[in-house]
Every structure is written in C-alpha cells, then in structure tokens.
Amino acid sequence: xxxxxxxxxxxxxxxxxxxxxxxxxxxxxxxxxxxxxxxxxxxxxxxxxxxxxxxxxxxxxxxxxxxxxxxxxxxxxxxxxxxxxxxxxxxxxxxxxxxxxxxxxxxxxxxxxxxxxxxxxxxxxxxxxxxxxxxxxxxxxxxxxxxxxxxxxxxxxxxxxxxxxxxxxxxxxxxxxxxxxxxxxxxxxxxxxxxxxxxxxxxxxxxxxxxxxxxxxxxxxxxxxxxxxxxxxxxxxxxxxxxxxxxxxxxxxxxxxxxxxxxxxxxxxxxxxxxxxxxxxxxxxxxxxxxxxxxxxxxxxx
Length: 302
Ligand code: SF4
Ligand code: SF4
What we know:
This protein is α/β, with parallel strands linked by helices. The chain contains nine helices and ten strands. It folds into two domains: 2-201, Pyruvate-ferredoxin oxidoreductase, PFOR, domain III (Pyruvate-ferredoxin Oxidoreductase, domain 3, 3-Layer(aba) Sandwich); 229-294, Alpha-Beta Plaits (2-Layer Sandwich), CATH 3.30.70. It has helices at residues 14-27, 103-108, 121-129, 136-147, 151-164, 169-185, 198-201, 250-254, 280-284; strands at residues 2-9, 31-37, 46-54, 69-72, 94-98, 115-119, 236-240, 260-262, 268-270, 290-294. Helix 1 crosses helix 4, helix 4 packs parallel to helix 6 and helix 5 packs antiparallel against helix 6. It is globular and about 65 Å long. The relative contact order is 0.15. One iron/sulfur cluster is lined by residues 240, 245-251, 268, 284-285, 287, 289-290.
C-alpha cells in the first residue's frame, strides 16, 4: 500500500488534491481511499488529507501516521506545530513542498527529515491563471507523478473532481494545463512505492464509549486570540493604497479576524500579525484601494 498525506491551509485545495489522486488511482484499477481532517476550522487554518492506494482491499482507516509521501501546499506549515507536518517522516519518506526555496535551502534551515523536493506551484498557478487560487490540481498532479500514475488518469481525475465542484470547462482546462506542467517538471525523488509502515506501526484498538457529559463543550480559559499571530498563514497579503481609499469601511466590516482598524482620519489600517491572508477585504473593496502582494517566503513574517 502507498500512503500519501497532504498538508495545506483551508482554501488551498489539499482535500481536493487527495480526491484527485485517489480518483486517478481508481481509474488505473487500484483500490483507493481518501479522507480529509479539518475539524471546526476556518479559512487559512492547517488542514490535512489522506490518500491510500493499494492493489488489495484497504482495511486501514483514519490518520496516516507513517506516510510514504508527504505533499505540503504551503511552506509556512512546516513551522506550525498545529499542522504536524513532520510527524512520522523518516529517511524513506518523500517530502514535496510548494516553495520558492530549493531543497538545500530548506535543509539549511533545519526543517525536515526525508527525501525532500520542491517546486514553486504558486508561481506556476499565477502564470497560468493570472491570479491567485486553489492549487488542488497541481498538488494532485505532483503526487500522482511521485506514486507512478499515468498523466491521462490524473487529467481525467482533475476533470471529474473539478466538475463536481462546479468549475467551468475553461477553468478545468486551465487547471489541467498547469497540472500537466507540474507533472512533467517536478524534480524526481527516489520514491519507493509500497513501503508504507502504517500497518506494522499501528495497533488496532476496540472503540470505547464515554458518557455524553464528557462530550459537552466547556470553555475553561479566557480568550487568547490577541496573542496568536497568524502572519505565517499568509501566502498573499493585502496592501492598502490610501490615495484610492474612499473610507467606506467595507474592508473593516468584512475582515473575519478583526485585523483592520480605522485611523482617526477615517482610513483603514491593517494589523498584519492578525491578518491570515484570506483577502476578503480585497474582494469587497469597491475602489481597488487594496492590492495583493505575494509573500516571498512564508516564514518569519510580521
Ligand atoms: S486584513 Fe484582509 S486578508 Fe487579512 S484577515 Fe482581514 S480580510 Fe483577510
Ligand atoms: S473597502 Fe477599500 S475603499 Fe473602503 S475603506 Fe477599505 S480600503 Fe478604503
């Protein structure tokens, strides 16, 4: 069995990427299983998705603790303990990171074990689409390349999965074009198919049942959002052009994180440590006073 774990931020497409990979494998005659985990999360928060591929029925369920391949949609996740990216990675695990950094630069920062490879999918998507957006098709294509699936299967899977999401034919074709570029250019890694250590490492346990009282939500500590920095969540950041701002405050009203305040002159100000880069403010701004800049590398941001 091959065990693939995707890590991304809500809205980047990790869940759909795992579905594309599973569907492509299924189309080639394999047994496939995919499932996401994101809990009561919000856009920009860490999410993970799992794909298992095998020739025989897959009886494992749940989290993939010891993956053969890890696909990371956003380099900022590596330093986020909540994302648990490095969990279960050993010297045989192939780790792909969507990043402007080379594998040597990543290793130089002491980030990761495993067989590391990188490609700047965000830049490829920007070139293909002309704007930011989900990179699920690109992630799925890269993963499919590593595990040895044919391009035709991945192309078919992208078409099916993105059509299920309601995307227009022209957008699906754009995704397939960008994904094919990634499939053909992602640097090779020494992937050992079928080396999953999951089955040997995990003990099966019988489920236990607790009293309903234990499941009742209780909040026992005070609010802490003010001390939580979300700078590392951003792939793109909003930037204000005060000369174009008419002071309508729509950005202030729509920011889900309260990261925008109003200055005495009536113009907004963005507090970047609390800005997660959702860009809702950019969407609602009627005068294009908020522009978008790509973060150069999603670490140590303010
Ligand atoms: S300032 Fe804009 S991009 Fe940042 S969290 Fe608020 S709405 Fe999202
Ligand atoms: S939505 Fe745009 S125009 Fe309105 S206050 Fe915000 S930046 Fe200014």
